[in-house]
Each structure stands twice: as structure tokens, then as C-alpha cells.
Specification:
Layout lengths: L3 E2 L3 E4 L7 E4 L4 E2 L4 H6 L3 H18 L6 H7 L5 E2 L11 H7 L7 H23 L4 H21 L20 H13 L16 H13 L1 H5 L4 H12 L24 E5 L11 H5 L4 H5 L9 E2 L2 H4 L12 E2 L1 E2 L24 E2 L17 E2 L16 E5 H14 L3 H14 L10 H12 L5 H7 L24 H6 L10
Helix pairs in contact: 2-5, 2-6, 5-6, 6-7, 7-8, 8-10, 8-14, 10-14, 14-15, 14-16
């Protein structure tokens, strides 16, 4: 019988670029050697080992002040308006919306640490078990996924592998990071399983990652790779492994593990794998009574009115928002009592798409709320919805865009109309790049795709509500000041 221990401390000098020691929250195998794993026909040995790496990916993606938030709030689809003292946060989210952020802003350091902690954990496993081929291949592609977020967010980041010598690394160029991601995937994906694993990386996840990498190749390297993006997307689409769910919202429900569409998900669990606290981030304080929530929400994240109005009334995806009069679970109309008022008969709580101002006194009821992910009655602070990192509809739209940019309009129309049909929308008979951009916004709202899309389509520096045109250098976030202070070998991104 295998003996399990619950915690272990590992010294990993590359995790934060400084050196660190931490405790793994998941179980690892006590006394198991690399030879034991390499010679074992028990897949549970490998699964337990790689669980520590996956847990790092799950832990910090969907929470406040991390990767998801900096991508969403800096785009034109989501905003955190300041409501008096609420959400002042030192001006962080106002700067994020206006594209006036600073290298010292905490959210960038949190996002950086999230990614490099996962990379450090992966590298440690690769060092400890260098000859376990199946384990190594999957972990290297998982590491490439983390670098896909880094190249998109920060661009010029250090490439740190199990072969790195330690110490303070220097930045690699964005082109070098691109090549590293590409080779990490291509060199290892044939060793990955071709079964529908969903919460771990398989061969088709790797192809989907390549499709997304190549779709943005011109942004990352200056050279477009549209044909490669289409070919990788076709590998996923033509596999027969996935299909569009007939019910769009089944992909985001509390029990969405059976989705036929989700390719790679983060398996959040309200008790054992927290970190996806959208229910707290977007709902009004009184929404606790609507959903019988265990904790009071924070009344923060909302949708820009212009983005909300981009959805046609008969588009089923418009139900991704919570608007209108709000009621308690027993049907009682909710009244919004301000922090200063004691009148129990305050104004009726009604979410309006209109937001009166960004600061300093945004109305507490203003802004359509994010309702794309199911909030089950009795939900605690953390949701148990599996978060879809990659969905088939995204890959279909990737194929549509890549094909259209190559002049293959008929192919693009067939692909994009497949997604629109599920949303109860009429077929396009002609197509423009703006149509494709808009469709991606409608389909992928609140899935941390909008910022990347806006940059690729040349819309990132434009003005929108309460945001002036921004400088081109802000297509990259700054290298966090905290990291530069700790590592003098790092160079700041241009413009900062």
C-alpha cells in the first residue's frame, strides 16, 4: 500500500525569481523514487505527482486582483466603478479602466507571482522525475500554457526551465518566449493522451493552445501565422471529441463537468479548490438574500453599458447579465439601503445597464452584473463551477478569423454561423473583421479573452466610456516594480 503524506516543503530558487519555500496543499507520495514512477504501471502515481502543478494553476486564476481581473477590467467589457469609499482601492481599478496603471500596482505583481509559482512547481517536478516521459510531456505543455498568459500580459519575461541555473534571470524577448511556447507544445503533444480529460491537458488541448498562439503571432512576433492557426483549430474541431452544447449556459453551470464543449477547465470546488469568487466580485450586497449566499458580496464588477447594448434582444447570450428589479429568495422586493441610511424602505434595488459615473460616487445599483456563471442557492464565497479556459466555440471562432484573414470567406462564414445558430442568431451572409470581433465579444464575454482580441484587432488604444485614447506601449502590462526591485537583472517594458 502506498503511504501518503499531506505536506512537504520544497526549496525552489526560481519560483519568484528570489528563492522560496512553501507547503503543498495536496497529497504527494512518501518515499516514491523516480524509478518507482518510471517502472510503475499504476497511473495514479503520476496523477498524484502532477496534481501539485495543476493545483497551482487552479489556485489564483479567477480571483480578485489576478490574471482574470487585469484582463477583464482593462477591456471595454467590464468595469469596477468607485462607490464612495467602496472600491477606491488606492485608485487601482480606476487606473486599470483608464489605461493609466502603474508598475507598482499590486494586481500585476499578483499575476506575475501566480504564473511563476506554477512554473516553479512544474520545474521542481521535472527536476525530481526527469525520466518519466508521460509526466514530463504533460508538465511541459502545462508550463507552456502558463507562458501563454505571460507572453500575452507582460511579453518580455524570463524563460525558466528545469535546466535553468538559478539566480536572478534576465528577460527573454517576446519572440524568444513565443518560440519556447511553440516548441514546448510541438515537441511534447504527441506523447499526450487523446481522451477527453477536461481538467488536465491532452493532445487536443495542446492543439487548441497552438491555435490561440498562432492567432496572435503577429502581435507577439510581428509575423502572422493565420494558416497555422487554422490548421491547429481544425485538429481540434475535426477530432470528434467535442461538440457545441445545445444549451449555451450548461458550459458555465455549477455542475458543468459533463459539458461536451469545454476542452480545458479549472476544476473549482467551493470547499477544496477555491479561488473563483465571481459571486462576491460582481453581486450587490443585498444579492446575498437573492441567492441565500453564505457571505455578503462586494458590489464591484459590472458591464459597460455600450458593451451590454451590443447584444441583440433575441441573442440567448444576453442572459449572461443580471439586470432589472432584484428580489429575495422568497420573492420579496429588495430595497437598497445606503451605508448612511437607516430607512428599511430605501430605493428598490434595480440593476441598470446605465452607470452614472466611474468615480467617486457611482450609484450602487448601476451596471449590469455578470450572470454568465450560475450562482447556485447557498453558494459560499467560492464557486464550484469549473472555469472553461478553452471552449470549442472559441476554437471555431479562431478558425473563422484565421480563414477570413487568408481570404477564405466561405470557410469563415460556415464556422462563425455555427456559433451564431446556437445563440439563436441569424446567419451572416457577408462578413467583415468587425463582425468577427463582435462575435467573439458576444460569445466569450467574461472569459478573459476581450483584451487579447482588442489588441489583435487594433482597438485597444481607442477611447471608450470614461477612457481616453491610450498609448500603444500599453498593449503590454508593465513588469511589476516589486519584481524589478528584487531582481536588478530584469528590464522594464518600454514606456514604463
Amino acid at each position: 500500500m502506498l503511504k501518503y503524506i499531506s505536506k512537504i516543503c520544497l526549496v525552489v530558487p526560481m519560483v519568484f525569481l528570489l528563492g522560496s519555500c512553501w507547503e503543498l496543499d495536496q497529497e504527494v507520495l512518501d518515499g516514491v523514487t523516480p524509478e518507482d514512477v518510471a517502472n510503475s504501471d499504476n497511473p495514479e502515481l503520476i496523477n498524484v505527482l502532477k496534481a501539485s502543478a495543476y493545483s497551482r494553476i487552479v489556485g489564483g486564476w479567477g480571483g480578485h486582483n489576478g490574471i482574470w481581473s487585469i484582463h477583464e477590467v482593462s477591456s471595454d467589457e467590464m468595469v469596477i466603478a468607485q462607490k464612495g469609499a467602496d472600491w477606491q482601492d488606492g485608485g487601482l481599478w480606476l487606473r486599470m479602466h483608464r489605461h493609466t496603471w502603474e508598475p507598482s500596482d499590486e494586481a500585476f505583481n499578483n499575476s506575475w507571482n501566480y504564473c511563476f509559482t506554477a512554473i516553479g512547481e512544474i520545474n521542481n517536478l521535472l527536476i525530481s522525475f526527469p525520466d518519466v516521459e508521460a509526466l514530463g510531456a504533460e508538465l511541459k505543455v502545462l508550463r507552456a500554457l502558463t507562458y501563454l498568459w505571460l507572453i500575452d500580459s507582460f511579453g518580455n519575461v524570463p524563460i525558466i526551465t528545469e535546466e535553468s541555473s538559478g539566480g536572478n534571470p534576465t528577460n527573454n524577448s517576446r519572440q524568444e518566449v513565443f518560440a519556447f511556447i511553440e516548441s514546448s507544445i510541438k515537441d511534447n503533444m504527441d506523447l499526450l493522451v487523446k481522451t477527453n480529460t477536461k481538467t488536465t491537458i491532452n493532445y487536443y488541448t495542446a492543439q487548441a493552445m497552438l491555435a490561440k498562439l498562432y492567432l496572435n503571432a503577429e502581435v507577439y512576433t510581428g509575423t502572422p501565422r493565420w494558416a497555422d492557426a487554422e490548421a491547429a483549430a481544425d485538429e481540434v474541431i475535426n477530432s470528434g471529441m467535442y461538440s457545441l452544447s445545445s444549451n449555451f449556459f450548461s458550459n458555465f453551470s455549477t455542475r458543468n463537468g459533463g459539458s461536451t464543449e469545454n476542452i480545458l477547465t479549472l476544476p473549482y470546488d467551493e470547499n477544496n479548490a477555491g479561488g473563483f469568487n465571481l459571486v462576491q466580485m460582481t453581486l450587490h450586497y443585498l444579492s446575498q438574500n437573492t441567492y441565500d449566499l453564505q457571505e455578503q458580496p462586494w458590489n464591484g464588477y459590472a458591464t459597460l453599458e455600450e458593451f451590454y447594448n451590443g447584444f441583440e434582444e433575441n441573442d440567448v447570450r444576453k442572459q449572461s447579465f443580471i439586470v432589472g428589479p432584484q428580489f429575495a429568495a422568497d420573492g420579496t422586493r429588495l430595497n437598497d439601503i445606503s451605508a448612511e441610511a437607516s430607512d428599511p424602505d430605501g430605493p428598490p434595488l434595480t440593476f441598470t445597464p446605465f452607470i452614472n459615473m466611474l468615480e467617486p460616487n457611482a450609484l450602487r445599483q448601476s451596471g449590469a452584473r455578470v450572470g454568465k456563471y450560475e450562482f447556485a442557492p447557498g453558494t459560499p464565497a467560492n464557486l464550484s463551477n469549473d472555469y472553461p479556459l478553452i471552449r470549442l466555440s472559441d476554437i471555431i471562432l479562431t478558425k473563422a478569423e484565421a480563414a477570413f484573414r487568408q481570404g477564405k470567406t466561405a470557410v469563415a462564414l460556415t464556422a462563425i454561423n455555427q456559433v451564431r445558430a446556437r445563440a439563436n442568431m441569424p446567419n451572416y451572409t457577408a462578413l467583415t473583421l468587425d463582425n468577427i470581433f463582435d462575435e467573439r465579444g458576444l460569445e466569450l464575454f467574461a472569459e478573459a479573452s476581450r483584451r487579447t482580441d482588442m489588441i489583435r484587432f487594433g482597438k485597444w488604444t481607442e477611447a471608450w466610456w470614461e477612457k481616453n485614447p491610450s498609448q500603444p506601449f500599453r498593449t503590454l502590462f508593465p513588469i511589476p516594480l516589486q519584481q524589478i526591485n528584487a531582481n536588478p537583472n530584469l528590464t522594464q517594458n518600454p514606456g514604463y
